[in-house]
Amino acid sequence: MSVSVLGIRHHGPGSARSLRDELERLKPDVVLIEGPPEADELVRLAHDPDLRPPVALLAHVPGEPSTAAFWPFAEFSPEWQAIRHAVAAGVPVRFCDLPAVHSLASRPGATGDAEPGETGDAESGEPHEGEAPEGAGARGPDAKVPGSRGEAAHEGETDGETDAAPEAVRIDPIGALARAAGYDDPERWWEDAVEHRGDTPFHMIAEAMGAVREGHVADEYEARREAFMRRTIRRAVRDGFERIAVVCGAWHVPALAGTSREGAPWGAGLPTAKADDALLRGLPKVRAEMTWVPWTYGRLAAWSGYGAGVASPGWYHHLFASPDRPVERWLTGAAGVLREEDLPVSSAHVIEAVRLAESLAVLRGRPLAGLAEVTEAVRAVLCEGDDLPVELIQRRMVVGERLGQVPDSTPMVPLQRHLREEQRRVKLKPEALDREYDLDLRKPLDLERSRLLHRLRLLGVGWGTPQESRSKGTFRESWSLAWRPEFDIDLIEAGAWGTTVPVAAAARVRDLADGGGTPGQAARGGASGGASGPGGGAPGTVVPGGGGPGRTGPGGGAPGGPGGPGGMSGGASGGVTLAGLTGLVERCLLADLPEALPYVLDALSARAALDNDVTHLMAALPAMVRAQRYGDVRGTPATGLATIVEAMLTRICVGLGGAVTGLDDDAARDLIRHVDAVHTAVALLDIGPAHPGGAVGSRASGGSTGSGEEAPRERWLVALRGASGRADLHGLIEGRLTRILLDAADLDTAEVGRRMSRAMSAGHPPARAAAWIEGFLSGGGLLLVHDPRLLGLVDEWLTGLAPEAFVDVLPLLRRTFGAFAAPERRSIGSRVRSLGAGGGDLAPDAENFDEERAAAAVRTVLTILEPAISGRTGSADG
After folding, report:
1. What are phi and psi of 764, to 5 degrees?
2. What is the tens place of the pLDDT at every residue in 623-676?
3. Which residue ranges make up each domain of the chain?
4. CA-based angle 121:123:129, to the nearest 5?
5. 840: which residues sit within 8 A by CB, 6+ positions away?
6. What is the distance between the alpha carbons of residues 91 and 82, in angstroms, rounded to a whole number?
7. What distance in Å separates the CA atoms of residue 542 and residue 68, rounded to the nearest whole number?
């Protein structure tokens, strides 16, 4: 019987190659791997060709998905190569670290008594945090780093160790060995000594780790982990296996291999089985489930927040996949990336870059050019000193954009499985790379894609992030899609709301309407704090932002049911703002959830009836109007929306006069923002299906829609006209309301001139006059170009100011005119010079008017408008 303990560097390509060769030589009849024993049953999926790394083992506590841990595997991970070798050879694989049921129970906030009475001996193996991977950055094999929390058994180790012994002394074994060898960079020493060698001397690594650990006293968590590993080895011996291979982090080798005395049996010099059993007795325990999930190289990279990752997974994958001529192949690939971006890179560039990288390696005494050397060669030769294309290569090649894949036979919650089906149906493939999509909602496929993405955002799965659309039409949407591994945790949590995406999203909407959380919390867009997850939890832990099931429960809240509108209004009025409910209505329509919409509308109606603050109503109205418009574009019935919008607009018009008075500068600016938003929303109402005549028809008929009721635009303008005539207005508000009424043709230029003269008269302070100008011109400065009288009034007021008053109002005027586009400012300056020359009454550019060129422009416009004119004439004749 032989026990071979093989110390490796987690995610080390050299270690992976050497381990594969060593297993071929040893031909073990069982392989023990550092990792959670709950994953033993999942090893069989390694047979499936659809299981493609990078992937990760995910352990979570049912009902508490925020208590979870990951164990990532890449193609170049030694543990993955050990699994593939064992599966191909038909050899059993057992994971030998502490079980996840114990490690998850030891987390802060974990429910250690989730299974009453289930404490006692550990029977499996656990994830580990608080340790870093061998040689990751300035940390060595399983080096403990104060305050850091690694992410996986082979990546770093769960937070149990950090929690159990926060004061324990942390050791950096690779750093110690590197310093002894005369290196100031531990990572570079490990690459030179191990990764760039043709083989990994496992006995030398064991001897080196033994020297580093000499005198080291393990903390409680580390001691328990190593005790369980020894227990698993003893169990394999009792089961009759003759050739046992143990794959673990190099740091643990001295604690598992025992004495190095020639001919000594395994176990000599190690703690006894009785001592290990005593150490493992009484561990807390929870119920845990485990599965495979896709992972990404971006999540392996230390720069994305994964404290126990590797900074260059793409480079490591290249070293593993291309052991022959890695420098030449890498630089050739870099040249290809630059050529895809239309950058001129020739074969001569590549040849010179290879020579430079190899020369740098020789000068630095390295056996092979490393990432530092090839990066400097790329910057100097391929990119000619420009750092921007170097960053492109860093993102695409050094880190990589690879996303793993798991087969359909992988254990999943029903919601995950349904999402995979939906992704296939709408032809959206999850990818790690950000990909832009422009959706045309008039196409059925794009409409279904939009609905799916909006539903997922309601569930807290930010796979898609809405972007500002280049089109002004409501039938287009722009999205940026990027899949993140933590979305699987979000889906597990969202599984409490339902088994399909539409059902779960509808239940989540009802809970949000009851105050169970805000939509913004539910959809955080995929941003995360690296592998640590958004909540600042331990690496290996993802803490989803959305709340769990609320009072209505996953299936509750149906209108008319026990959790229906009658029991909801109290919660809504106590926890959700009016603007939040209107935004929820809009998102409900975007996600096409008609079964949840009546529930939210009832909550909105109840809240709006109790809210007496006009600014709250003004903040809520635009989203309601957009929701009504989107409902029309998407064909979604929005019964009840029009009634609520009508009531809200009426209350806004009635209360506007009292809301615009007695305001300071900041409050005035906030109110102007609300007024502009409501003005835009009212314009949408007038061109909507409820008012087919539009604003023009309303004005032509003396302010009537033809049904005896005033059009929304007319009522709104009447309210603005009444508010603008008050004597106690802030100058900013009065100027803005006057401009809106002028643009709407509700005031003529003569009346505007009188108002401007009054605002700039000597009876008003200069600061108020400047605020009036700022409000009036916030709609654009071309008005002064085309109306010399108004420009003359501003010029006369400004030149008549006393020097002290001019200095006081200058910052306000600079801010006002500085917001104009450069052509507008030039045109205004030209008009002012014309005023000074006595040409203020001239029409703009009258002296330079070219009738021949103008006639050509008129003919072009008539050609464009001819079909519309002909159609209108034909309709009249008919």
Report:
1. -105, 145
2. 778 777 765 566 655 566 787 888 888 888 888 888 888 888 888 889 899 999
3. 2-113+122-304, 324-399, 414-532
4. 95
5. 788, 791, 792, 831, 834
6. 10
7. 7
